[in-house]
Specification:
The structure is a single chain. The protein has 11 helices and 13 strands. It is of the alpha/beta class and 351 residues long. The chain has a single domain, classed as Metallo-dependent phosphatases (Purple Acid Phosphatase, chain A, domain 2, 4-Layer Sandwich), CATH 3.60.21.10. It has a 6-stranded mixed sheet. Strands 1-5-6-9-10 form a 5-stranded mixed sheet. A two-stranded antiparallel sheet has the order 7-8. It is globular. It binds manganese (II) ion. Manganese (II) ion (MN) binds next to helix 3.
Amino acid sequence: MSLVQPLFNGNLDIIGDIHGEYDALCSLLRHLGYDLQGGHPEGRRLVFAGDLGDRGPSSPAVFILIMYLCKIGRAQAVAGNHELNLLMQKPKEGTGWFFSEQASKDIRYMPFDVANEFQKKAFLEFMKELPIALEREDIRVVHAAWEPSAIVALRSVTGRDAGQAHIAWEHEVALDIKQSGLKERYSQEQVQWGSQLSDRASRVPMLPATAEYMLAHQMRNPLRIITSGIERICTLPFFAGGKWRFVERHPWWKNYDEEPAVVCGHFWRRLGSSEPEDANELDLFTDVSPFSWHGKKNNVFCVDYSVGARFREREAKKTVGANTKLAALRWPEKELVFDDGTRQITSQFMA
Ligand SMILES: [Mn+2]
């Protein structure tokens, strides 16, 4: 077992983050021409770019279907940051379907189906088997970022699943942070600023040790880089997800100059007028049109069209799916198919 595995040959339909939106998945598969067993009249095959569950109403059903399709060889999937969290047994926001201690806190996402013990065990076994990256000569698939040095590090992992490799790297980073004195400086800042760090109204200046500490956790762990992307220290702190932040996402594709195309998910591309929940959060696609390839060579494509934000549309009693879609990128056709049946040819490939 390796964390970087060969991708299927032939024509592919690469599907972005699903986040427990089972109905969207079923209608997308129908529009793509798949039958209930994942068979396709033209022999096409499915690839899932990770983040199968969390937030949406039916994460268990999504896992059951994809697990089945992968087992019978009709689909492949890479793990995303949400799969990694489940593997690490970290009950984060949106994981109430999996962790009973989180279920009552996930009010925003209610109602949602909850996995039983038997299912959880099966899902964990399945996630342990998932690769982090899939590759072939012309195309690569990861959840968030194809960062060449992180991929090299993943290739060197043998005899460990992603969860075990993640723990080992986290230990290494923690030890280094402690020995270098960064942990001590970080703790001092945390004590000094205390509850203000989670108060939007407070004026928190740039905290250099906190920034460096956060950056180290993200950038010194190859698994984090591939499943949640590249980060940098930002110029000004910003408030997002209930905390003051000192590092921001970096559009890694601006540095990607290798030949094979890369398809990823994770980055919540926006359609139409949908607004970010945190106005301060950096939109990585301000200079990229919604259906365009992007990056230094224009050979990277993020296929996540924010279906994970459907809970917000439900919450606001808006039309579900108006600004959020589940998408598949057809390769080599480079056409998008959405869960509502609409299609769109992508633009600017290698332009
Ligand atoms: Mn993600």
